[in-house]
Specification:
- It is built from 8 helices and 10 strands.
- It is an alpha/beta fold.
- The protein has a single domain (16-247), classed as P-loop containing nucleotide triphosphate hydrolases (Rossmann fold), CATH 3.40.50.300.
- Helix 3 crosses helix 4 (113-124).
- The chain is globular, with a radius of gyration of 18 Å.
- Bound molecules: adenosine-5'-triphosphate.
- Adenosine-5'-triphosphate binds next to helix 2.
- One of its GO terms (molecular function) is ATP binding.
- Residues 233-254 are annotated as: Disordered.
Length: 254
């Protein structure tokens, strides 16, 4: 059975992420960057992942996206183990189910906002008509409090704050089950960060979210906080239950 097209199997699984005995090194000669015995994130959780620069946060996000492959161990998203997918199937799975907001936004500078977002819709293979994609884009831009004329502006003509919101719209255009957000608030002052986080939580309320930052003050916006130093331990000292976290009731919105 090709589970990638089996929507009910993906919908029934209660875990958004299951990481099991994962070890990752960039080369055979180098020391492993990550060594995670068990990590599980439930559907709908908004999770904060923190750690200092160089601790492996982006590496873990790339493993979750399937753009890196573990040296050992397994990763399953929405009940789908990556190891059972070909590279092509994994790309398709990622485009359909995962939205990513990159640290540097990664918008295509010479394309308009509408083109940047519709490209993401096209690559998902979901087959929505261009009219439907445009209508969804306009709705998202409106929810993200961007003026309608932004739609036809080139991405590199936008302010950093506007680019950030367009990057979120692009990540959400396919209604992803999992939203991955890599350190998007580092350039913002405290007030801008608060309003950005309120918006992000609101527009991502139907998705599981993994949000990465080195700034522990961001913890208050999330259901659970994982420190990478606790998640990933040297193999010689790894206890049976390696994952520690702080937990609090899920907030519906801010
Ligand atoms: N392509 C690569 N090849 C080899 N080593 C890499 C590669 N990418 C990252 N690293 C190394 O892996 C380690 C973890 O890097 P990573 O980018 O995951 O950290 P990070 O916690 O996201 O850092 P930052 O907060 O600065 O973005 C670092 O020592 C880095 O030098």
């Amino acid at each position: 059975m090709n589970i990638i097209n089996n929507k009910s199997a993906l919908t029934q699984c209660k875990s958004a992420i299951e990481v099991s005995h994962v070890n990752f090194a960039y080369s055979k000669e180098s020391t492993p960057i990550l060594n995670i015995e068990k990590w599980q994130v439930s559907r709908g959780e908004h999770v904060f992942l923190s750690g200092p620069s160089g601790s492996g946060k982006s590496t873990l996000l790339n493993l979750l996206c399937g753009t890196l492959t573990p040296t050992a161990g397994s990763i399953a998203l929405l009940g789908q183990p990556f190891s059972s997918l070909s590279n092509r199937q994994r790309d398709k799975f990622r485009a359909r189910n995962i939205g990513v907001v990159f640290q540097q936004f990664n918008l295509i500078p010479y394309l308009s906002v509408a083109q940047n977002i519709s490209a993401a819709a096209y690559f998902s293979g979901k087959g929505n008509s261009s009219q439907k994609v445009l209508a969804n884009t306009c709705e998202l831009l409106d929810r993200l409090q961007l003026p309608s004329h932004v739609l036809h502006a080139k991405a590199d003509a936008l302010s950093i704050g506007q680019q950030q919101r367009v990057a979120i719209a692009r990540a959400l255009i396919n209604s992803p089950q999992l939203l991955i957000v890599d350190e998007p608030t580092s350039a913002l002052d405290a007030d801008a960060r608060d309003s950005f986080m309120a918006l992000l939580k609101e527009v991502a309320s139907d998705s599981t979210m993994i949000f990465v930052s080195h700034d522990n003050a961001m913890e208050r916006y999330f259901d659970r906080h994982f420190r990478i130093s606790e998640l990933s331990l040297p193999s010689t000292t790894q206890p049976p239950h390696a994952v520690k976290h702080t937990s609090k009731p899920k907030q519906e919105s801010l």
